[in-house]
Amino acid sequence: MRIGLVGFFGWGNFGDELFFNIWREALSQHEITRMNDLIEKPYFTKSAVSKASSVDAILIGGGDLIRIESISPLYWNGAWTAKPIVVSGIGVAEESNLTRPDVIPRLQKFFSSTNVLSLSARDERSTEWITEKLNPKVPVRTVPDLVFADYVALKGRTQSFNAVPRIGFVLNKSQITQSDLRLWDRLSTAHASGKINATLMVLATGEQRERELDNLRRNGLREYAELFCDTTQMLDRLRGLDLVISAKFHALVVAAKYGIPYISLRETSKSIALTRYSPSTVIPLEIMEVMDPVFRGIGSATAASVFTKEHIRDMANAEISHLSGIINTIHQLKRS
Questions:
Q1: Three-class secondary structure of residue 206 per DSSP
Q2: Confidence class for position 306, pLDDT limits 50, 70, 90
Q3: Keywords assigned by UniProt (predicted)?
Q4: How many alpha carbons lie under 13 Å from residue 254 in its C-beta half-sphere?
């Protein structure tokens, strides 16, 4: 059976490419194709109707796919509703101060389709928003980020902390703040003194990496950037760190998965939700002692999780199993 994946796939963003790899592995018995064959509008070389007719089912997944100020013809294209659809782990980005009056009615129409067979969100706030604003046909389930699942090809982190703490500093394509620049300056000073080993990591490839490098260049940081060929290299590098300080959400998720202390540079609904599932590991005293001048004015997660790591993993695995089961049922019905 041919499954079309819809999301922010192909641009090279770290978290989205992890999602793509998860679904490609989880649904390996089927033919997997990315619905967008372009990474700029109109996103397709053929009509969306033609693209939909070329697959047997559609899986929509990823992060901030619902935005209150715009609606994407890639994610929420009415043509998709001609085929069975499963929607997994999406989030609602409410950070924008802008709204557009046509967004909610168009989303309501999409989610009212009887072909939307399953719907889950990445956090409680997104679940509430979708339920209240869109009134979908199927109930919205809240699931942890799928990177916590076993399907990600990650080795466990078994090493102890490094003698000289390794700190990963991650920015993204969004505006780099003066606070970010001051913090990197502190990290660089501590690095130069030999107290830490600090790295400015660009967790992206392709088009997304070019955007992020342009952002670093505009802020005088390009020369410090460490680049990677693919997500495997990024994961290997993250696994060897003692602390992750990041504006990019999935660097925090991977840190949480490995039990590496993390600090979020952005307070967003998804970073707040992450602390509920998996709050930052306590930063070891030996790191705090050398990092104290750096950390002044920088907070970290202190919330207590109501879940064990095993429970989080099991919930993420259950989401993948649930949707794989729906896909397999569609396959069986198609064959009968």
A1: helix
A2: low
A3: Transferase
A4: 32
Q: What's the token pair of residue 156?
A: 């466990």
Contact predicate 117/141, CB 8 Å: no
Residues contacting residue 311 through CB under 8 Å, at least 6 positions apart = none
Interatomic CA distance for residues 299 and 33, integer angstroms: 41
Mean per-residue pLDDT, 254-261 = 88
Q: Do the Cβ atoms of 150 and 321 come closer than 8 Å?
A: no
Please, how many CA atoms are within 13 Å of residue 140, restricted to the half-sphere of its CB? 23
DSSP secondary structure, 116-185, as one string: EEEEEESSHHHHHHIIIII--SSPEEE---GGGSTTS----------SS-EEEEE--SSPPPHHHHHHHH
> How do residues 195-205 score in pLDDT, each as one tens digit?
899 999 999 99
Cβ neighbours of 217 (radius 10 Å): 12
The answer to whether 238 and 168 are in contact (CB under 8 A) is: yes
- DSSP assignment, residue 79? G
CA-to-CA distance for 241 and 29, rounded, in angstroms? 35
Tell whether the torsion through CA atoms of 63, 67, 72 and 77 is positive or negative. positive
Q: For residues 288-322, b (16+ Cβ closer than 10 Å) or e, as one string?
A: eeebeebbeeeebbeeebeeeeeebbbbbbebbeb
Is the per-residue pLDDT at 6 higher than 80? yes
Can you give the pLDDT at residue 250? 95
Element (H, E) at 262: strand 262-264
Residue 200: the pLDDT is 98
* Rounded-to-integer distance, Cα 34 and Cα 62, Å: 13
Q: What is the pLDDT of residues 67-102, one digit of tens each?
A: 989 999 999 999 999 999 999 999 998 877 778 899
Q: Is residue 278 very low, low, confident or very high in pLDDT (cuts 50, 70, 90)?
A: confident
